[in-house]
Amino acid sequence: MSTWVVPGYTESLELGSGASGRVVSAVHGETGVPVAVKYLSDSLRTRPGFVHDFRAEARLLGGLRSLYVADLYEYVESPHGAAIVMELVDGVSLRTLLTRQGPLEPEAALAVLKGSLLGLADAHGVGVVHRDYKPENVLVGTDGSSKLVDFGIAVDAGTSAGVAGTPSYMAPEQWTGAPASSAADVYAATATFFECLTGHKPYSGDNLAELALRHVDAPVPADEVPAAVRELVRRGLAKEPRERPAQAEAFVRELEAVAGAAYGPEWEVRGRARLAALVALLALLLPSARSPRTTTDTARTVLSRQPRHDGMRSWLPGRPGMLVSAAAALLGILLTYGIQHASGAAAQQAAEALATTSAGSDAGPPSPTTSPTASPADGAPSPSPSLSPSAPASTGSADPGPAATVSPAQETTPGAATTAATPTTTPTTPSPAPAVKDVTVSAFRQSGPTTGTATIDVTTDGTGPVSLTVSWFTSNLGVQLGSQDGPSQTFARSGATRYTITVDHTFQNDGCYWAVQATTSPASANGGATQQILTRQCELR
Fold first, then answer.
1. Which of 6, 44, 66, 219 has the most CB atoms lying inside 10 A of its own CB?
2. pLDDT of the residue at 303
3. Of 434, 446, 460, 441, nearest to 504 (Cα)?
4. Residues 473 and 465: beta-carbon distance below 8 Å
């Protein structure tokens, strides 16, 4: 097992492990914010295909902002390892809830389905298909909310990526390797909903061939669920993709209509309250209950504005600046009770700090995965076996790797990880400044009427310190950068050779064209990168 630790973090507890890697809880040294770190295993790190998929997962998460998907904070890659740093959700997986508490009442099942469907809807909105929706990849928080995690085998809609997924939840077309579609995610979500209501999966088989045939040919077992939701199950488990809701957003609308008619306007409030009560019964499995706590005073620099309320949260662990090596030893071991979404004064306090490797929103620290939001109760986000043609079989109870795969012949139920790793910090001599080989703007999009999101990749030939400066511009001409919009943002990084940084910006000036410019110090060999987009309000029609 790799002993490499992402610079700037103190690990506190292993949440799960498998053939493709492990997921641990950790604390960001400069802010004390708890995170989940998903490491790619050493055996897969030497295989370019898996590293490519791991990077792709991080990049995908970096461009996805949703209250119902675990946030990506940062992706770090060095000669010694690769890791995704994500939001740590203080909750348990739906799998743990079903295993320990049994089937859910209809209102609770509808509430958990709605939350995770909204996460799918946000993914579908940017053209991403999850392909591995299942109880292991839905986390239920202490307030009864639910979040979707583990985008390890997600792809762009329409991509022909072969047969992949978890057999018990795969739509008929997934078994044939048809291009990825959001309708397949709707099918998997409905199969999970069915299991929430009945305590068992909609179809079973003694082997993969029999299971596949039942998904393709067997009647939808809608009679096993309460009458009020039978049509919802029939629609979601329809054999033909065209007979299902095409997008998760459409399925949410159908769900709300059915739930409101059957259980009244307060169904969701009661459902979430029931979920919160069930999670409370499993309190000892929460990250906040299992992680030791210490208190350490640290000096902070306020870099953020007021908390945002437009659905896009600032990446908590810090913004510009990640001077890691010596700082880790000086700051010591910062272990807190698991993560809680900061809001109001708490969000402001958490955002008061320096950065790491992926700026999340307004001022951003690490651009976080998995999806690495792992449920402490079952370990990694994807403990149940998934079928993927690109990865070896895994026998671990959890599989946080990029393709989230284990042997499809049987599915296992992960247990809670209970052994906390002993945190250590070792002072090191700062490395000399490396040469910056390349800077690219891999993605730039308009995320709202006045907000934009850019993802920037920096590649170096060493692990010494490097700084990235991001500047924003507006123009009405589109032939030049135009006028600078607000101050530039600078992010200091060290300890890796590749950084993916996602930065959000709220534009103050009018202009049909927005542009982002990225430069580094030391200067990159390609001189930096720029990208310009035509805003939606000025598109020619």
1. 6
2. 25
3. 446
4. no
Question: CA 2, CA 21: separation in Å to the nearest integer?
Answer: 9
Residues 6+ apart with CB under 8 A from 428: 325, 326
The answer to whether 449 and 61 are in contact (CB under 8 A) is no
Q: How far is CA 417 from the centre of its chain?
A: 21
132 is catalytic: yes
The angle formed by the CA atoms of residues 43, 49 and 51, to the nearest 5 degrees, is: 65
| Total count of residues recorded for the chain | 541
Is residue 26 a contact partner of residue 399, using CB atoms and an 8 Å limit?
no
Q: Which CATH number fits domain 436-538: 2.40.30.170, 2.60.40.10, 3.30.40.10, 3.40.50.300?
A: 2.60.40.10
150-179 burial by CB neighbour count: b if 16+ within 10 A, else e? bbbbbbebeeebebbbbbbbbbbbbbeeee
410 exposed, middle or buried (CB, 10 Å; 0-12, 13-18, 19+)? exposed
pLDDT (tens digit per residue) in 249-277:
999 999 999 999 999 999 999 999 999 99
Kindly report, as residue ranges, where domains of CATH 2.60.40.10 are found in the chain: 436-538
Cα–Cα distance between 142 and 376 in angstroms, integer?
Answer: 13
Cα–Cα dist 457/459, whole Å: 7
| Structure-token match 């202009």, residue found | 511
Residue 255, pLDDT score: 94
- State the Cα angle at 348 between 364 and 446, rounded to 5°: 40
Give bridge partners of residue 519 from the DSSP assignment.
469
How many other C-beta atoms can be found within 10 angstroms of the C-beta atom of residue 65? 23
CATH code 1.10.510.10 region(s) in the chain: 92-283
Cα torsion for 225, 227, 228, 230, to the nearest 10°?
Answer: 60
CATH value of 92-283 in 1.10.510.10, 3.30.1490.20, 3.40.190.10, 3.30.1490.190: 1.10.510.10
179-203 residue pLDDT tens = 888 889 999 999 999 999 999 999 9
Catalytic residue among 132, 150, 362, 485: 132
Distances (CA, A) of 257 to 168, 197, 230, 237: 27, 18, 13, 18
Per-residue model confidence (pLDDT) at position 387: 52
Q: What is the pLDDT of residues 287-303, one digit of tens each?
A: 777 655 433 332 222 22
Q: What are phi and psi of 254, to 5 degrees?
A: -65, -40
For 415-471, the pLDDT digits (tens) are: 333 333 333 334 445 567 788 988 988 888 888 888 888 989 899 988 888 899 999
**72-108 exposure pattern, b = at least 16 Cβ within 10 A, e = fewer:** bbbbbbbeebbbbbbbbbbbbbbbbbbbebeebbbbb
Whether the CB-CB separation of 298 and 351 falls below 8 Å is answered with no
